[in-house]
Amino acid sequence: MPQETASMESSKYLKPVNIGWQRGGLKWKISTTFSGLILVLGLLVIGIVYYFTGNALQRQVDLRSTALAANLADAAAGFVTRKSTLDLDALVAKYGRLEGVAYALIQAPKGEILASSMQPFPAELKEAEGLSRASRVTRVRGKSVYETRSALLDGQLGTVRVGLWEETVQDDMRATILPIVGLIVACLALGVGLSIMVAGKTIRPILDLKAIADEISRGRLDTTVSIQSNDEVGELGRSLERMRASLKAAMIRLNRE
């Protein structure tokens, strides 16, 4: 008994959904089906585009930061050799003013900071001086930074460290990805609109046949069926026309008798 009660309760909740779908108009069913397929495919395309575009932009960011660090290392090697502090400070300050650059600094092999574009020197960077990874993510003054390192003369003269603000990098990525996503969304909206329009045109002949069938059911047998189509709807229209003609002929015979 408890199982029967549970099954009856579950069927009670499921039944309205099935009835709602069965009672829905053909236009609603067709447009809903096609719109659902379009939206699912659209979301899949957006996910794929976002993934591959994001990876491509991230690689571009890595290449840019690596190029900045390598160029700074090449330019600073001579100044470090000559121990030209003023030239190093000017060079590092120049790189630190580039768009999206959080900081640029030159570090001696023993960890001493020879020049830095960020003053006062952040404590977070002092704590990370011993790290030897070529690329990493750190936080400076409460903000995330992508840091890239490049060796000065194979590390004999020290290390160059260049950081890019994560916020700027993310803004650049969004500025590139969002227009693409917006275009895809616009295409999805257009596809949904077209599916509704196509559904309306598809069922129009069926609605016309329904109206003619209603007229015939009221005894108006002079209503001709004129559906100019070679598909299944046309076949249905011709069958309905044959039925109308047969009924009219039968009614004429009955009236004569």
Structural class: alpha+beta
CATH H-level name of the largest domain... which superfamily?
Answer: PAS domain
CATH architecture of the largest domain: 2-Layer Sandwich
Overall geometry: rod-shaped
Q: How many β-strand stretches? A: 5
Number of domains: 2
In DSSP terms, counting alpha (H) and pi (I) runs of 4 or more, how many helices? 6
The run of helices and strands is HHHEEHEEEHH
Low-confidence residue ranges? 1-21
Radius of gyration: 37 Å
The portion of residues forming beta strands comes to 5-15%
CATH top-level class of the largest domain: Alpha Beta
Query: Any idea of the CATH topology of the largest domain?
Result: Beta-Lactamase
Largest sheet: 5 strands, antiparallel
Helical content (DSSP H or I, runs of 4+): 55-70%
Beginning-to-end CA distance, first to last residue = 64 Å
Arrangement of strands in the largest sheet: 2-1-5-4-3
Mean model confidence by pLDDT:
80
Structure keywords:
single chain; 257 residues; alpha+beta; Beta-Lactamase; 2 domains; 5-stranded antiparallel β-sheet; rod-shaped
Topology:
Elements: H1 2-23, H2 26-82, H3 85-96, E1 101-107, E2 113-116, H4 123-127, E3 135-140, E4 143-152, E5 158-165, H5 166-217, H6 232-256
Antiparallel strand pairs: 1-2, 1-5, 3-4, 4-5
Helix pairs in contact: 2-3, 2-5, 5-6
What can you tell me about this protein's structure?
The protein has a 5-stranded antiparallel sheet with strand order 2-1-5-4-3. It has helices spanning 2-23, 26-82, 85-96, 123-127, 166-217, 232-256; strands spanning 101-107, 113-116, 135-140, 143-152, 158-165. Residues 1-21 have low confidence and may be disordered. Helix 2 (26-82) runs antiparallel to helix 3, helix 2 (26-82) runs antiparallel to helix 5 and helix 5 runs parallel beside helix 6 (232-256). Helix content is 67%, strand content 14%.
